[in-house]
Amino acid sequence: MRQQTEPERPGLGPGLFKFLGELKRHNDREWFQANRDRYEAEVKLPVQGFISAFAGPLEGISRHFLADPRGNGGSMFRINRDIRFSPNKEPYKTNVGAQFRHRDCTRDAHSPGFYLHLEPGASFASAGSWHPDPAALQRIRERIAAHPRAWKALGEAGLAVGGEALKRVPAGFDPGHPCAEDLKLKDFYTHTALTDREVCAPDFLERFTAICRGNAPLVAFLAKALDLPW
């Protein structure tokens, strides 16, 4: 009988933050090409491994969300910046992002989901919806207005939902509504700061999973507003 070995645990090590810190100081194509092997070994492959390892825990939160480790079109954002319309012409991002989207919205970075941001001294985990399009934003606000008790229960459970907001309650909604302040929001997401030490710790997969599980009620509320199965 073949002896089963325990699978190797994914590791996000200090080399990831060291590389990103150096990239911030040398953000040009010549330096990146000279250090591409480091990027592959210390950043891309470890992050893809983490994404792959998160697939099982994520399915335990909701089977409708994906942890896709593919290098292109998967959960991990590209390191290259889109500089076509930006005054900042630095070619590379100095952080790494991974978004875990609904299987029905795999191409929509603004749809409800879970997010991991890795940056030296500024990493965080997040969940929710950032800059939803006007139609989605309207439907989220309508659900908040129609289900104020369910929305308020999120805050009572300890979820601090924030984002950019309007100065006034948007047209079509009651300024005296009990959730009037939240109806002003243009984003709906949480933010949990992470230290470099926490990210590199052996139990980071469990830590990140626990954060996502705690934020799941918000993602479920937003998904239901958009008729996405939870």
Label this structure with key terms.
alpha+beta, 5-stranded antiparallel beta sheet, about 40% helix, about 10% strand
CATH architecture: 2-Layer Sandwich
* CATH topology label: BirA Bifunctional Protein, domain 2
Which consecutive residue ranges, at least 5 long each, have pLDDT under 50? 1-8
Helix tally equals: 8
Biggest sheet character: 5 strands, antiparallel
How much β-strand is present in the residues? 5-15%
| Domains, number | 1
What's the N-to-C terminus distance? 40 Å
Q: What order do the helices and strands follow?
A: HHHEEEHHHEEHH
Structure summary, number of beta strands: 5
| Overall residue-averaged pLDDT value | 93
Tell me the CATH superfamily: Protein of unknown function DUF1054
Q: What do you see in this structure?
A:
The chain is an alpha+beta fold. The chain has a single domain, classed as BirA Bifunctional Protein, domain 2 (2-Layer Sandwich), CATH 3.30.930.20. It contains 8 helices and 5 strands. Strands 1, 2, 3, 4 and 5 form a 5-stranded antiparallel sheet that branches. The N terminus is likely disordered.
Short note summarizing the structure:
The protein has 230 residues and is α+β, with helices and mostly antiparallel strands.
Helix and strand arrangement:
Blueprint: H1 14-25, H2 29-34, H3 36-61, E1 96-101, E2 113-118, E3 123-129, H4 134-146, H5 148-156, H6 180-183, E4 188-189, E5 192-194, H7 196-200, H8 204-225
Antiparallel strand pairs: 1-2, 2-3, 3-4, 3-5
